[in-house]
Amino acid sequence: MKIGLVLSGGGARGIAHLGVLKGLLEQGFLFDQIAGTSAGAIAGALFANGYTPDEILKIIETTPFYRHVRPAFTRMGLLRLDKAEALYRQYLPHDRFEALQIPMHVVATDLSAGELTVFDTGELVRPILASCSLPGIFEPYWINKRQYVDGAVLNNMPVEVIQDKVDFIVGVHCNPFTTQKPITSIKGVLERSLILAVRSKTRERLAQCNLLIEPPELSRFDVFDWRRARDLFRIGYQYTQTIKPQLIKTLESAL
């Protein structure tokens, strides 16, 4: 029985993927394929490279990522990510999909063609950064003379990318939608609108997961809450602990 893992985008909330992963590993889950968008691409690639969830959390907490972005002057975004390439190569030194311990698939949106691109061979770091290029915040990322933006624009839960490669899919979605939090700022309006737009295209893909994990407490967090990394990790882990009986039953049926 081959098990696949699909990790959504969600900005800082994607750190919760790591806590969920830790909980799944403790219950005996092993993964044969991984697909991820944006933050899910980062978490998935580092995990596929052999880092433990706790090690990835430590990388996030101790690395000054803000020093590796710079202002954009092209009027296509506020910030540029190209300087971050060297940073990611510190942790992914082989910079090749083929060097990963688990096959990984990263999705990004081809801005010119208006279609989704799946990266799973060749260079690794630049496709990850392309998948994270949130429109309006980061300028489009260039790969082979093509412009790419965040994969979540077209597919924030790339289930179909590995659907024919595995027998069972575990999906981790970090963008639960609730109406309890009032909108009080322009940033809040933009964030809620983005979540609504993305979720409308994600609902069908969520239903295709054999096991879907979506910690509801994540709705309290902002997509830019990077300084609350440990809290986000804890929420992912603790929620996975609360569904332990379901996980045991699911794993037994999958195997």
TrEMBL record:
Q: Where is this motif: DGA/G?
A: 150-152
The protein's matches in CDD domains, at most eight in alphabetical order, are given as:
Pat_PNPLA6_PNPLA7_NTE1_like
**Catalytic site positions:** S38, D150
Q: Name one GO biological process term.
A: lipid catabolic process
SUPFAM superfamilies given in the database record: FabD/lysophospholipase-like (SSF52151)
Sorted alphabetically, which Pfam families does this protein's record hold? Answer: Patatin
Ranges for domain PNPLA come to 5-163
Q: Which GO terms describe its molecular function?
A: hydrolase activity
Under what name is this protein listed? Patatin
Organism whose genome encodes this protein: Larkinella knui
